[in-house]
């Protein structure tokens, strides 16, 4: 049976603006990450060649034009396309940069891409002061002014201009070039003067570009197990979606089952194929912090647009900013641990916020977040099989892919207890590392009564997130008494408690706390069962008679025995 749950494409509900979008001209996979614009006679054989080599050594794909070009020639459409397809444009301003129409037209194209598709622009001021660029003064200003007065014969013949038209043409160029110079010189960049700090400057520039390109992958695990096959399944699905639509994919499953790990692996694998990418981790937790909501919106802007100065005052204004900044960009956005619809509305409120062929991945414990056609498909997370479980556990318990021979049997007992849950396998494996087999046996015996605290806290997040006390009471009742019972029988019993069990059980299923098998029987992961029972035990660790529910035979017999003696004593 497939792990994907498909929703009808025609439904409009939450995403009532789901429409086909026009193809973004820069949506194709980019060949070059950095475009270098420079004045050849000033820096080709010195600074620019050193910068180019350093970028290549850092694994960055760079476009640099090595051709000898006629002075004043117009840049061709192919070069405009190259600029548009680059993620970052680095402009090396030097004294004679503005004497070349070619360089100035590159500048115009770069600034147009910055304005229309948010291309990152990084100016480098090589032996020239930024203020000279901004105001066209000093040596740079003289060169620029001289160039404006010299319209080449080639341009004259091509345009068949007359004297009066020459003046217009010069004013026309001046009207475009001057604002472009003012704007680009206001960008944060690097100043390299007198070549004394050239090597250090190149190192800083390369490091900054690496950061802007987001070349660092998210950490997953030293020895990921079972991740690669699941990543292949997900990527194969994403690759099958060839339309220009924005595609939303949900990943649903209980806490600790590996949703975040899988989402990180997909992000690392395909993220660089997009114009921008952002991974928002622990949204449930961050959302509750002061200014956490706008901080998440600002994080998206920084990750994708590399804008550090954007300050968002409210989630409502953030919605507008996100739409305006991202609507022409093909992005990969991962929203990790979403637990309310308000979070979705603030972080991806509409498909129109994103450029065509963008991909949004949402991880959640709550299926209700994904229903109502809010996403196109849901990937239901699967537990690890026995072989995967043993390997993952062994990496943490033995620092090897398989157990030690004398620990093989008891390792299988721990794996069985973990029930294919990666979180438990990792936590218990790390806890048991380098311990004696007698200690292992003691830990296993203790786990029958008291679950591991780290696993317990992680799983309890889902319980704490339930809407009201009746849902919590239903969960605790199922954990203690009703696992394996027919769903309708349980509803009949709990109706007498005024718990509204029909809707309550549905919520528990959506929250990945309870499952219903093919025979309509209620099921629950053993560790969720233990988590629920521990919640009850914690209320009165020493006195079972003070607990709201009893399920352990020894406790039941003890309490009943004490009650009987007390009753007899009172009766006398």
TrEMBL record:
Any one of the GO BP annotations: defense response
GO molecular function, one term: ADP binding
Coiled coil feature spans: none
Limits of the TIR domain: 30-213
Cross-referenced InterPro entries: AAA+_ATPase, Apaf_helical, Disease_R_plants, NB-ARC, P-loop_NTPase, TIR_dom, Toll_tir_struct_dom_sf, WH_DNA-bd_sf
The keyword NAD belongs to this UniProt entry's keyword annotation: yes
Keywords: Leucine-rich repeat, NAD, Plant defense, Repeat
Pfam families: NB-ARC, TIR, WHD_ROQ1
PANTHER family with a match to the protein in the record: DISEASE RESISTANCE PROTEIN (TIR-NBS-LRR CLASS) FAMILY, LEUCINE-RICH REPEAT-CONTAINING PROTEIN
Name of the protein in its database record: Disease resistance protein (TIR-NBS-LRR class)
Organism (species): Trifolium pratense (Red clover)
